[in-house]
Specification:
alpha/beta, single chain, 186 residues, 16% helix, 35% strand, four-stranded mixed β-sheet
Length: 186
């Protein structure tokens, strides 16, 4: 899909469907601000937008932690190690119905404390460059009062599940099965 080229939303049953395992990461800086990316579905008019945590799919043969580390490097330019990851904090099964595809993701959420940094999008794919239109650091209050959608919708609940420094997380929060779609999955 190309940026700016709105396509009519296909009949939901005509969209390809896929399933994957995915890692999402809450990157939080020393001022307790969370990095989010503004994503979009340019196949619709008007183009819907929503904010998301960095992350993405697990490649074949890759560990969950390895995928989280790779995705952070690709989407933000930040190099982290396995010791930087805290979690998993939460797990869920989410259906994302977009104008061109329906993706079901088995997701785990991780946490990384870092210093604020200038995000590099050099590792973004062509699709990410077309759909992820902005990024910024958000305070808890800004997340709670956001005018645009933030996915996951229960992001503050996950953020509140981050253990205190040095502690290990409890069992991951089970967030169940959810739908976060721009077009109903059908």
């Amino acid at each position: 899909m190309t940026a700016g080229a709105a396509l009519p939303a296909p009949v939901p049953d005509d969209r390809p469907r896929n399933r994957r395992r995915a890692m999402r990461v809450l990157l939080v800086d020393g001022d307790d601000r969370l990095l989010l990316f503004r994503d979009s579905d340019p196949g619709l008019e008007p183009v819907p937008v929503f904010w998301i945590t960095p992350g993405g799919g697990v490649d074949p043969g890759e560990s969950d932690a390895g995928a989280a580390i790779r995705e952070i490097a690709e989407e933000t330019g930040l190099a982290i190690g396995a010791d930087d990851l805290v979690g998993p904090l939460a797990e869920r099964v989410v259906v994302h119905g977009y104008s061109d595809v329906v993706t079901t993701q088995d997701e785990l959420f991780w946490f990384v404390r870092c210093e604020a940094f200038d995000v590099s999008t050099a590792g973004h794919t062509e699709v990410e460059l077309a759909t992820m239109t902005a990024h910024r650091w958000w305070s808890r209050s800004e997340v709670a009062h956001a005018a645009e959608d933030i996915w996951p919708r229960d992001l503050l609940r996950i953020w509140d599940h981050v253990p205190t420094a040095g502690a290990r997380p409890d069992e991951p929060l089970d967030l169940g099965d959810v739908d976060e779609s721009t077009v109903s999955p059908g």
